Amino acid sequence: GQNIDQPTEMTATEGAIVQINCTYQTSGFNGLFWYQQHAGEAPTFLSYNVLDGLEEKGRFSSFLSRSKGYSYLLLKELQMKDSASYLCAEAGGTSYGKLTFGQGTILTVHP
Amino acid sequence: DAGITQSPRHKVTETGTPVTLRCHQTENHRYMYWYRQDPGHGLRLIHYSYGVKDTDKGEVSDGYSVSRSKTEDFLLTLESATSSQTSVYFCAIWSGDFNEQFFGPGTRLTVL
Fold first, then answer.
1. Are strands B107-111 and B87-95 parallel, antiparallel or unpaired?
2. Helix, strand, or coil here: A39?
3. pLDDT tens across B60-111, in order?
4. In A1-111, at which residue ranges do the beta strands (DSSP E only) sit?
5. Which of A31, A33, A98 sits opposite B45 (nearest CB)?
6. What backbone torsions phi and psi does residue B83 show, to the nearest 5 degrees?
7. Of B43, B96, B103, the CB nearest to A96
8. A101 to chain B nearest CA, in Å?
């Protein structure tokens, strides 16, 4: 399988910026996804990167470096509602949507 | 939400009994997936389908079977449930138009 590594837990303060890193194996790479998952709910899509560089979407941005097998999710102007688990997932292989997920990073935002 | 529903949403069953979980989608997506989510393991792919009657195994397929006789329905069956199959099960579809995978609301299964 393909190893996806991300930190288990992070904490941050409301209004601050936090960066959640993700590393993956580079063979057979077809894209890198980030999902947000609140406790007891389904994952919801945040971003998709297939080319190197930064993709910005409101308060959330995602970065990809294919040569380094590295991505990060950047959350700006943190709000209490951003407290959730953030899942990094790699699309690999030849079948659409076969995602390999990391274990997720639990982000806690404090007042 | 991409029109994905799962049933049942919660189920408690006993070891050794058969269990079938249903995923239903209303938008004619070709690709459908079943994942399980457990603490310490994240989401893991069980089986997936790339069309009617076309299915394949994922990372953790042992003890599970699937069927897809219609585009809109993807069934996951545990032939003889074990306690290790206690988990939250998510169905997902792939939207090629948006390069996104949308998840259903999940089914919480407890095997006693």
1. antiparallel
2. coil
3. 999 999 999 999 999 999 999 999 999 999 999 988 766 788 999 999 999 9
4. 4-5, 9-13, 18-24, 29-37, 44-49, 53-57, 60-65, 70-75, 84-92, 99-101, 105-110
5. A98
6. -60, -30
7. B96
8. 6
